[in-house]
Amino acid sequence: LLFNIVIYRIYNKISTMENIGFQKVDNYNSEDLDKKFRLLIKDGKITKVFTNAFVVPSYRFVCPDKDKIGRSCILINKIKDLIPSICINIMNNKDSEFTYKSLLKLPGIGKFLSYQICVDLGYWDKKIFDENKYVVAGPGCINGLKRIFIDRKGMSYESCIKYLVDIQYEGFEKNGYKVKEFFEDRDEPYLNLMAIENCLCEISKYLKIYYNEGRPRNKYRN
């Protein structure tokens, strides 16, 4: 499960995962996956392997002589060897911060991806990672916080997210939202740490376009 979550987050594209299928740690082969990607693109089954929702590293450190697809396949092979020991450790500890820091040890997995993988694992078992107890501010989220905080008063970005979680009801009421109605489809009637982190990322994207700063990654037509 962890192995495939990591693979998905490297590419972050549903069509990619649907076409390559579930991968197994004990028989993963980087050359086979590389060939499969080339064939899928050639046959027109997929147009892009990687997401365009965020900047994906080039993974040049893996193998400078290969292209990005080839490097990613080799990277997954390196990650494969570390998965068993990491799984044992996070299952034994069952602590959100420990899980996050353990995943940071995987090659090519930085703070942003490590947090996303943790959140995915939390859907399977909250004891391994609880998205309402631990949060990591990604690049987009940080940009969003910079938009709405004139002065953070020395607070970390993660503390700012927690502050927004704590005052959200006040904001909903001030803007005329009925909380029970607003969250009628949720078991927990509020935006948790992870949800606020995501919202801040989206806010930064919207305001970037509103203020005509840079170019959007996606364009939508009416």
State which percent range the strand residues make up.
Answer: under 5%
Q: What percentage of residues falls in helices of 4 or more residues?
A: 55-70%
Secondary-structure element sequence? HHHHHHHHHHH
**What radius of gyration results from the CA coordinates?**
20 Å
Question: Biggest β-sheet: count, sense, barrel?
Answer: none
Shape: globular
Structural class: mainly alpha
Mean pLDDT: 93
Poorly predicted parts: none
Q: Tell me how many strands there are.
A: 0
Number of helices: 11
End-to-end Cα distance, whole Å, is 39 Å
Characteristics:
globular; 222 residues; mainly alpha
Describe the structure.
The chain has 222 residues and is mainly alpha-helical. 57% of the residues lie in helices and 0% in strands. The longest helix has 18 residues. The chain is globular, with a radius of gyration of 20 Å. The mean pLDDT is 93.
